[in-house]
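Predict the 3D structure for this chain.
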Amino acid sequence: MAITTKEQYSKFIKEQAKRLGFLGCGIAKAEFLEEEAPRLEEWLKNGYHGKMHYMENHFDKRLDPTLLVEGAKSVVSLSYNYFPEETQKSEEYKISKYAYGQDYHHVIKDKLRELLQLINDEIGVVSGRCFVDSAPVLERAWAEKAGLGWNGKHSLLIQKQQGSFFFLAELIIDLELEYDHPFTTDHCGKCTRCIDACPTQAILPNNTVDGSKCISYLTIELKDAIPTDFKDKTEGWMFGCDVCQDVCPWNRFSKSHSEPLFSPQENLLEMKARDWEELTQETFSKVFKKSAVKRTKFSGLQRNIKFLNKK
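Done. Predicted structure below.
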């Protein structure tokens, strides 16, 4: 039976997203993010982006999806679970759980392309673009607008029965769909566990993150030497940081993912302190061949390990 209404289109998209392994799928109208504009402006003005100068670019595009996709009508927001079954044995040198397996940018973008192709096959010619944390898209704002969850005090999206260990991705398309209700309730209440636990005090009391103090920024985005102010504050994290998520009560609902490509690289979880300290370029290239850890490069990981070892 042919599908011809926006309600049927939306149902089809959500069914196919689930079949492709996505955890959640919500849809919002593609329009200017009026409420986000002053927040983004203030965040940049305060220098919370540190040396991520690219955040200053494409201000209008971050707020208006029609500038990314001509004639855009809908933003399809999707979440994809990455919570692992097992974690690293050693606590001395840690990498964020999202980087255990293959680079999520490629894994999820392939699935988005497949979803877009399915839309074209079933519905007709639909123009659009796929986004996975690699373009000026305010993904958490769109996910909230699409009803997927709420932004926690740590600024990450939280879903009641899933926690926060998932990636966000978007399809911006020129097809009008049935739109979900925005998620408007904050279920964090008076809880301040993420704020209290943050080793560098990067999470501010007003639900804002000072990115320039975040361990993920210091170990991945920052290309210069890590400021000595953070000595003894990075708690063994050498690539990213999961502290704010690990302490979040909602993550007691996190379930292990079922994505084979996110399985840990061989021997990664068993690597001991000495293995990391004696890591060579050759081993780095082998272990992290298809991993997001490649983003910091071998030299960057070495810098982070040395910083953790500084007396």
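The first helix runs from residue 6 to 19.
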